[in-house]
Amino acid sequence: MRFGRRNVDVVDEQVSVRNPARYVAGVIGLAAIIFGAFALADTGVDPDHLRRPHESLATFHHTPLLALIEIGFGVVMLLAAFGTFIGRGLMTAASVGALGFGIVIVADLWPTRLHNWLGVHERHGWLFVIVGAIGLLAAVLLPVTRHRQVVERETVPDDRVSRS
User: Fold this and answer.
1) Radius of gyration of the chain (CA)
2) Segment 121-132, tens digit of pLDDT
3) pTM for this predicted structure
């Protein structure tokens, strides 16, 4: 039996990153895109009149501009779902934006202007506050874990010594 160092060759090394917040971002993104797409289908798109008409979808009033904003938010959240570290920052920024927008609506800072442009009411504000808070909490509190797996193969040293 020989003491000393083992001769080891690293055959394969795999690093996987697990980010459970990406699933939350994916669900929020898909829901926002679907909700915005249905609203856009109801209101139609006229680039000259993005503030008209005010249509109701699932008791939420919408204008084409709000529907486009919701679709854009959903796309950003889906992009965040596919990125690991940049995605987390993107998810945080989009969630803070939704949370802030919801607070502005709930606080009635510009009630007539926001209603005329976007068709929003207090119910919209609470929806945006809830979605923003869920996204922000997921981005901040859910841990990112790295798993490293190394596959090694022990090599057998050549013990033959040439004797002269």
Assistant:
1) 27
2) 889 999 999 999
3) 0.76
